[in-house]
Amino acid sequence: MTADLMVFLAKLISGANARWLGGAPEPRQRIYFANHTSNLDALVLWAVLPPEVRALTRPVAARDYWNTGVRRYLADKVFHAILIERKKPTAHDNPIGQILEAMGNDRSIIIFPEGGRFSGSEPMPFKSGLYHLAQKRPDVELIPVLMDNLNRILPKGEVLPVPLIGHVTFGAPIQLLPGETKPAFLERARAEVMRLHDL
After folding, report:
1. What pLDDT, in 10s, does the model give residues 94-132?
2. Is the Cβ–Cβ distance between 169 and 21 less than 8 Å?
3. Closest CA to 114 of 153, 139, 147
């Protein structure tokens, strides 16, 4: 199964197109961070990126979900996903170190800082991973992304999608401010995602 076919299927199922506010898609290293409401999120966000940007971008995904059968094939061969351990990681499963190594000096990533899927109208509080990435890589732009309506297209526990239109909105880049605390940064990052609802 090729990347082009997955892009076609993702856009067909979701009807989603990218909307860029406060910036433009560029083939440069970035961290895209988004709310997480559906199993479609990573696929659709990755698919709406322009080809030259998509080629540099790797989703960060849960190993326990993507480590079996056809999912593992897609994660490895199509998305080149960074699979991390989210349930009881050991000392060998440092997700920040693993992500930074996979990023290198030129790869972008897609990350969902809530740490799981939630279908509420607002994102859950962000976990600390985004802060640590911003701290370790201050040179990389952080792009807030709002995934909208995808939880209605493929609700949790369902297999067949509902024919509705999804939306993917990319906001202006943010950075960790000098002296900014972890709680303040994470709340500001979360607010940037929520703010895209109204634009």
Report:
1. 799 999 999 999 999 999 999 887 777 788 999 999 999
2. yes
3. 147
Residue 104 lies in a domain: yes
Say if 168 falls within a structural domain: yes
What kind and span of H or E run contains 109?
Answer: strand 108-111
Q: Is the pTM of this model over 0.85?
A: yes
Residue position matching structure tokens 């990126």 = 49
* 142: β partners: 31, 174
H-state helical runs in the chain: 3-14, 41-48, 51-54, 63-66, 69-73, 95-103, 129-136, 150-153, 182-195
Kindly state whether residue 42 falls inside one of the protein's structural domains.
yes
Q: pLDDT digit string (tens) for 50-102? A: 999 999 999 998 888 888 888 888 888 888 999 998 766 555 667 999 999 99
38-49 CB burial, b ≥16 within 10 A, e <16 = bbbbbbbbbbbb
Considering its fold, how many domains does the chain have in total? 1
